[in-house]
Write a structure and sequence with these properties.
heterodimer; A: alpha/beta; Four Helix Bundle (Hemerythrin (Met), subunit A); four-stranded mixed sheet; 49% helix; 16% strand; B: alpha+beta; four-stranded antiparallel sheet; 2 helices
Chain lengths: 334, 88
Amino acid sequence: MKKTYYLFNPGRLSRKDNTLKFTPVDEEGNELKPRYLPVEHVDQLYVLGSLDANSALYNFLGKNDIAVHFYDYYENYTGSFAPKCKLLSGKMLIAQTQSYLKKSKRLEIAQSFIEGASFNMLKNLKYYDNRGKDLMPVIDSIELLRKKLHSTMDVNELMGIEGNIRKNYYDAFNLIINDHEMGIRTKQPPLNIVNSLLSFGNMMCYSECLRAIQKTQLEPTISFLHEPGERRFSLALDLAEVFKPFLVDRVIFKVLNKKEIQVHDFEEKLNRIVLKEKGKKKFIQAFEKRLEETIKHRSLKRNVSYKHLIKLECYKLQKHLLGMDLYKPFKIYW
Amino acid sequence: MYVILMYDMGEKRVGKMLKLCRQYLNWIQNSVFEGEITEVKLKELISKAEMIMNEEEQDSLILFKSREQKWLEKEVVGYEKNDLDQFL
């Protein structure tokens, strides 16, 4: 499987001998020992530091189908360099737009997303319930809310229920995570450690979903659950709902409960708690490991990685939009 | 699959070989590479390598293949010339 590379150090990325060469620079601007990345093995690059590059490099990356994502100082996603879109399909775009415009169709898809998301959340809670945390009250109240999903009349009502489910779910975080309090969910800015990890993790999940969407014919700006607004790829947000519980949340529980990430991996800056570089690396490592884990796919009857699962979800959605198959959200069954 | 590749070539051709291997695998030591690679890509690499190699001059290329990285235990004694993590 192709890998994602994370560029933390400032430096220069260049094309050299038909492959990628990264030359880091230190504070004084001196070049350090270069590192060559095998171009055939790179899927995408995350730029978290400052990067020097020229158009020759971007041409080369484009030809090799490598995306580059940029993040600002506060880990906010600022944009991407996306290789030429090879998978254009007018038919798909029209089908997607039509499904959005037809109220009943849109609602049906949105309900599926929440159904999958809440199911996967419950799976998380049940897992920890089996391990001696008393989560039964939360599970019951989410089960109750879930029953209302399919009787909702419009997306706003659905979003209301989703909000309630999520509130219950986040309350349970306080019980699952051993030494840290989550309190209420705060974002922009995240005010404590758990919230900060959650924001960072969700961001990683969104970009992973966006990358998967870009590899299919789907249009990332037309979404069903979230309102397709301006300035963002909202279909990635829709898709991420299904995957966040077991890609992000489970990783957070693990790194905190096993003390892989601790208080000293964070720092307080301008009224917000952010991960230090070392902490970021630790989290990304755990997240990447999770993406590479494989499961036996029931209908495909072969082993599939979590990363590939996101792409399969896009295919399922495409089939639904084209009327070939009904979309059933991915639910973890183990 | 996970492979370890090493070569021994005439002076004129080592540079070409180095550049070729860098596209597919991670360099770890002089004329030694390792990394994850698919079967098709490995075939591609080998066929390109054969174009560079010269049999009369006894060039050779050796590959150790393993199904996955976890079946391979790596130990570095002394200085590690290049560490392979995803963080740069």
